[in-house]
Amino acid sequence: MSLLEFVRKESKAIAADVVKWRRHLHANPELSYQETNTVKFVAQTLREMGLTPQEGIAGTGLTVLIEGKNPSKKVFALRADMDALPIQQVSDKPYRSKNDGVMHACGHDVHTSSLLGTARILNGAKQQFEGTIKMLFQPGEEKNPGGASMMIRDGALKNPAPSGIIGQHVMPLLPVGTVGFREGMYMASSDEIYLKVIGKGGHAAAPELIIDPVLIASHIIIGLQQVISRQANPRQATVLSFGKVRAEGATNVIPDEVTIAGTFRALDESWRELALKKIEKMAQGIAESMGGRCEVVISRGYPYLENNAGLTRRIRLAAEEYLGKDKVVDLDITLGSEDFAYYSHVIPASFYRLGTRNDAKGITSYVHTPTFDIDEDALAIGPGLMAWMAIRELAQQ
What we know:
2 domains; 4-stranded antiparallel sheet; Aminopeptidase; Alpha-Beta Plaits; alpha/beta; 8-stranded mixed sheet; single chain; 10 helices
């Protein structure tokens, strides 16, 4: 039996266990940087495979090494994220979340269980490849500053240092059985914008006696769109969106202040820096011109994500070997963001997508929604696919 056939066979053979692991994680989700029980489960599962995880990295993260023959020849890294989202799940499945207001709505339960499956496959094949696989199970992908940045800070990419890293993410727009890749620029940077517009409240029927922060906030929201429509390069995608506006007034009461929260996305770090300065200056200027003031807080998020061209090309070829060319598709640029981007600014990295959609089964909900779920047939594919990519990458000179 060839090594490729062995990996395919093992991926199918362990699928029931991977599904069991995924359902346990799905039923017991934990928020960013609170993944205490999740990481305990991951560590125990790895130990049952005979592996020795290194815990306590980035708080609730861990790494583990799988050493093949000649382990120092080359090191390659694989990553999974473990945190859930503050979303109330809507589901009648037996594995639905047991934790009110917390849900694996972005598929991190899939990423974690799939990487555990990859660990089992690679550990069983370690006498058939040379080099070392370093696995990163990281916390906090969903919340600034991003668990990836903390894993890097705590030395996850050192001792031993990998030559590159890949990460997998579910994609409910791709049918189960397919995977997607993109070379070069793929995902946007992400920063959170918080504005507090301060005026002078009072009776709505006496506007001459007040400084209306609701009106000022309205002008700021509209005015800031000029940063996108008139100051950004129209050939480069960029987005500024506000999703939360809060004014604690009434029909006849103007409040003293209004708070606004939004997100800024960009695909260029120079423009990102310039745009954030423009946003701050313009928001403050509009408020001052109308007699109020605006306090601006910018929470710096993740950088843009760029998939290393050579690495992406190689793992795509490995995916075509594993699944067939017809199951491998191209991805378009997205203004979504991912803290995997931090790795891509340190070592060659590639972030690919695992199809989880099944229209016939009614599994079509997008990520970050209360009804999100996956076709678990993907769990018979993901572990072996990542294992084969890793094996092929270790074989590269």
